[in-house]
Specification:
Distance between the termini: 35 Å
Largest sheet: 5 strands, parallel
Structural class: alpha/beta
Strand order of the largest sheet: 1-2-3-4-5
Shape: globular
Number of strands: 7
Number of helices: 8
Radius of gyration: 17 Å
Length: 199
């Protein structure tokens, strides 16, 4: 809790202006999946909401690793515009339970992106898009940050599958590539539209 209080106090008006011009406001929370819904609200969600409230012009995204199915409503209650979820969460079953937030994911960053072939990446990415067909509150991404060892060919296959258009994909969501620590992509926010730009 002390760290969260420090984070909130750090957001001064001058820092806020510089931050808002360039970045969104993602919170990456690696351990909250171990909490009950009540604990998640008390020890994580309350502070995440305060941070998001202090950044009104930023794109707000909350990422929690692991199976967060039981705390999705608490995650949405933080006011995050986007909920970035791990691969184990079944988006097609859960998206209607958090209708005020956009779900971001859900290609496996390890078994598919790191260890898979370009063909497997392409197939899996199309499969995720097809499962989420008709859902406007979904943005295609990976379930977590990409490893720096992720083959470039796999990233290319992901991008190509994310942009692919044909009759069977009509109405399927399109691409959003996670920035991550090691990625060569930068997320840009323009009004309601999130886009990616090469750094």
């Amino acid at each position: 809790m002390t760290w969260m209080r420090f984070s909130i106090s750090w957001i001064s008006p001058s820092r806020l202006k510089r931050w808002e011009r360039r970045y969104g406001s993602p919170i990456l929370e690696p351990t909250a999946f171990m909490l009950s819904p009540k604990q998640s609200r008390e020890f994580s969600g309350t502070y995440a909401r305060e941070i998001f409230d202090a950044l009104p012009e930023c794109m707000t995204v909350l990422h929690i690793c692991g199976n967060t199915t039981d705390i999705l409503k608490e995650m949405a209650a933080t006011g995050a515009e986007g909920l970035s979820l791990d691969t184990v969460v079944k988006f097609e079953e859960e998206i209607d339970s958090v209708s005020d937030s956009v779900l971001i994911g859900n290609v496996d960053p390890v078994r598919v992106m790191l260890d898979g072939t370009p063909e497997k990446v392409y197939e899996n990415t199309l499969d995720v898009r097809k499962k989420m067909k008709g859902h406007e509150d979904f943005i295609l991404s990976t379930g977590c940050d990409l490893s720096p060892k992720t083959p470039h060919e796999n990233i290319r296959a992901f991008v190509e599958a994310g942009k692919a258009k044909n009759k069977t994909l009509k109405g399927c969501p399109v691409l959003f590539l996670r920035a991550g620590y090691f990625s060569v992509w930068e997320i840009r926010y323009n009004g309601p539209v999130m886009s990616i730009c090469r750094k």
